[in-house]
Amino acid sequence: MKTQTQTTMTSSFLVSKIISSSSKLLSTHTHKYKLLQIIHQFLCIALYWIVFFLRLLPSLYPNQKTPSRTFDAFSGKREKDIIQENTVNGDSTSVCRALTQILSIINEIPVSSRKYELLRSLAEKLIEDNLKVGSDVLRDINSTVLSSAFAKTLQQLESAVMEEVKETTLIGSPEHRLDRILHTIWSYSERAWAWLGEKAGVPKPDAWTAEKFAAELLWLAKKMSSCGNVDVAVSSWGSASRLAWLSISADPRIQGSLVKISAFLLKEARKMGQIDEMEKDQNDDDENVTKMIWKHDEQSENKMKLLMSWLPFLCRASKGTDAPILSTSDRLDVERAIEDLIGTFRKDQQEKVLSLWLHHFTSCPLSDWPNLQSCYNSWLDASRKQLAI
Q1: Taking the model in full, what pTM does it have?
Q2: What is the SS3 assignment for 307?
């Protein structure tokens, strides 16, 4: 069975390499030879069907010596995984599993579902009740589950934005039509594979959209803020430089949602470290002070990544089509938050951030926000004074 599966995987890989190589080779000639283009598309479709049937072979002819593995079609989990989960006892783990399940279902069902708001309310009540108890264990459960959900949704958002940008840039081209055909075939292949139980999980629902993921990320970030672990969201969002770059070419509605997330996390990042500074001044323990200094350096690095990743996007993104995404007061508050963050950096870091802002702010004629001119002038004045000493 293992050899057969490896052979299938090798065949699938070789077919994929053939398709990729042929696509690159023929892409420069298909505009001259229409017949060659049609043959190319036909061969690609045929090869993908071959891959589909190769993947079915282990299911059609299983090895009798290999014990079958039960697949739970409702939860998308192996029997072994379900047994392991059921052997975990304790109220705290039960609460953890309950919150994980609720957030997972919220992630999967469409916003238009009548049960969506019900699940959101249920999750909010569970999180708030955990906080009201005042238990460190329950607080850690909130933090751990929310952080995991944020990371998962962030990955899905990046994939959704990438798909949409790809659709926008290739729409109408022969490559786009071929890609749509192959995507449909592969989608049915994945559904059949999951149905046969040879691959854990379920196919991606059609209701998964970038706007939905962005709205859920903002909601998760706010919940993480109330639970005291918003620094994880700031770190993850700051590390999503690829998403920030892709989002510059995204639909204005998606850009608006990402502007809201960035604005919220920038204001939250400004608060990071303020309480630690007060505790450091009141603490005489060298070990605790060392830990606080290390944490402060880590937070400073995350703040730097947040600005370097998302400042170009904020300068170039749509600020709203029918109505402004942020109110005037919110825009000013975000600008002050950015200025406060820059003020905590070293002089060389300030120069790096401000030069990045100046480049993108001036490169986009329609952009008037965020306007960091006063911060830029303050940095120049400080640099002059340093040279005059």
Answers
A1: 0.70
A2: helix
Q: 108 burial class (0-12, 13-18, 19+ CB within 10 angstroms)?
A: middle
Task: Please answer whether residues 37 and 26 qualify as being in contact, where contact means their C-beta atoms are separated by less than 8 angstroms.
Answer: yes
The three-state secondary structure class of 165 is helix
Q: How far is CA 368 from CA 200, 209, 318, 364, 377, in A?
A: 48, 29, 11, 9, 17
Q: Hey, how many other C-beta atoms are within 10 angstroms of the C-beta on 80?
A: 10
Amino acid at position 79, single letter: E
Which tens digit of pLDDT belongs to each residue from 237-292?
Answer: 999 999 999 999 999 999 999 999 999 999 999 998 765 555 555 555 666 667 77
* CB contact at 8 A, 70 and 112: no
**DSSP β-bridge partners for residue 72:** 77
Handedness of CA 155, 157, 160, 166 (dihedral sign): negative
Residue pair 267/339 in contact (Cβ under 8 Å)? The answer is no
CA distance 149 to 276: 27
Q: Which tokens hold the place of 280?
A: 């450091």
Q: How many residues does the chain have?
A: 389
